[in-house]
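> forwarded from #structure-qc
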């Protein structure tokens, strides 16, 4: 529950989003890891696996993004949308 003014500031939304993602990951970590690791330190493994998944996602995302055309070719309203002013 955020105020209307806070939702209109992009930096505030980024801070809240990061805090929610970290909290969600930490919640799952505390629920799952004690039962699976049984006293061994698995925090480094957890960070490593998260970095591997993030790296593979970014690699796949950027590779697919370079193959796709980001500007539509021969679109009838392309010229109007480029010169559109608000």
């Amino acid at each position: 529950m955020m105020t209307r003014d806070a939702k209109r500031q992009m930096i505030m939304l980024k801070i809240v989003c990061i805090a929610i993602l970290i909290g969600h990951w930490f919640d799952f970590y505390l629920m799952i890891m004690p039962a699976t690791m049984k006293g061994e330190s698995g925090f480094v493994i957890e960070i490593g696996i998260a970095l591997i998944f993030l790296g593979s996602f970014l690699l796949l995302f950027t590779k697919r993004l370079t193959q796709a055309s980001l500007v539509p070719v021969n679109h009838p309203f392309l010229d109007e949308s480029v010169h559109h002013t608000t």
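QC bot note: The chain has one domain: 4-82. Residues 10-37 form the longest helix (28 residues).
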